[in-house]
Amino acid sequence: MRGFRRLEQLELLPYIGKWLVIASVVAFLAGTASAFFLVSLDHATAWREAHHWVVWLLPVAGCGVGCIYHLLGKTVDGGNNLIIDEIHDPKKVVPLRMAPLVLGGTVVSHLFGASVGREGTAVQMGGALADQLTHVFRMKHADRGILLMAGISAGFASVFGTPLAGAVFGLEVLAIGRMRYDALFPCVLAGILADQVCLAWGVHHTHYAIREIVPVRVWSVLAVVAAGIVFGLVGMVFANATHKLSGLVKRHITYAPLRPAAGGIVIATAVWALDAYRYIGLGIPDIVRSFEKPMAPWDFLGKLGFTVVSLGTGFKGGEVTPLFYIGATLGNALAPLLHLPFAMLAGIGFVAVFAGAANTPVATTLMAIELFGAEVGPLAAIGCFTAYLFSGHTGIYHAQRVGHGKHSRYRRSSPEALRIADLAHVDKRRNGPADASPPTPADETGSAVMRKKDLR
């Protein structure tokens, strides 16, 4: 037995060495890409804020990006869902063109006034760049999945400055209720190193201050649970509204480049009519203000509406920073009703709405600790896990699998590794007529997983 244990430890040394090298390369690529992206985003945002009239060119910009994707990017238009599908069902290396296309498309979206985020761009760049190492290092299928997960972790960690949250996000986002611990070491390495690479390029992240945190008591726990229920429901509404609008637009506008053009007309008109410039772009200044003073109680609805229209009509970017805005302003509005400090509840809402919409409560709890300090950790965890439960089996990522259902209904009757996009079809077959038609894919990645199989 002792000999076996010594042999096992010796066999781990090449494994550690291999992933030290690979994760370092992934971290350098993803961290550098994120640094360039964040600097570009800052310049685009500053120029747009100095020239409000540019929002009227949003339909033209959307159509232009749509044409480029229509001509060159059909194989990568699945975005984050494509990467998740490749981890679960490896088929072919993600085309390198995903990185420059999503980078350019996102910067253009922000330059002209779409309400999108940055996480999707960073994750896609990290995943696409990492996957190019598949042939360089002659990766096997199992190792390729870990490589892609490391790319996700590196991209997320470097774009938000949260290395531990980024590492866990790459593990947790793949399936509800299940994480792959065989990828823990590469993802942690990639997340931590990518964050350092981004910082080494001189990029700095926004800091948020919570000056008052109430102790963990019966009332504070109950109040955060109540807020977590609202956060989860709002995350569910956001995810469902975005997917339904996207499906509706695809049905009625068959030519893809015209979808963001139509969305751009709606957004530009609404911004002008409502004087709603604060609801476009990332909205970082408003997020910061939600930690400092009371905000208008309808701010979260404004950001939610503009983001749903932007993403649902095909503008490129991410969902997470808008979700931060929605959560922070919603928490700010709920704080007086629950007799909690508005900065504290803004911070919990910041991460909890994202936790519910993305089904990643562990990563978001770590994010709260990394961004706001360890003292808020217990209450943030309660808020994130409550929101996760109450958001239901929905999410912003269609390709996410149901590794382990949130409650008994899905644990008993749903096939393991089912995509959340197909859960509605399972419910229809369970509750509808016996001859209900079989499910079909809900996105354009072409991967319908309606079979029971173990997560690799």
UniProtKB/TrEMBL annotation:
Q: Which domain of life is it from?
A: Bacteria
Species lineage, top-down? Bacteria, Pseudomonadati, Pseudomonadota, Betaproteobacteria, Burkholderiales
**A cellular component term, taken from the record's GO annotations:** membrane
Transmembrane parts of this sequence: 20-41, 53-72, 146-171, 183-204, 216-239, 260-280, 337-358, 378-399
Q: Which GO terms describe its molecular function?
A: chloride transmembrane transporter activity
A Pfam family it matches:
Voltage_CLC
> SUPFAM superfamilies this protein is in?
Clc chloride channel
UniProt-recorded name of the protein: H+/Cl-antiporter ClcA
Where do the segments described as Disordered lie? Answer: 425-456
Main location class: membrane
The protein's topology relative to the membrane is: Multi-pass membrane protein
Q: Which UniProt keywords apply?
A: Membrane, Transmembrane, Transmembrane helix
Q: Does the keyword Phosphoprotein apply?
A: no
Q: Where in the cell is it found?
A: Membrane
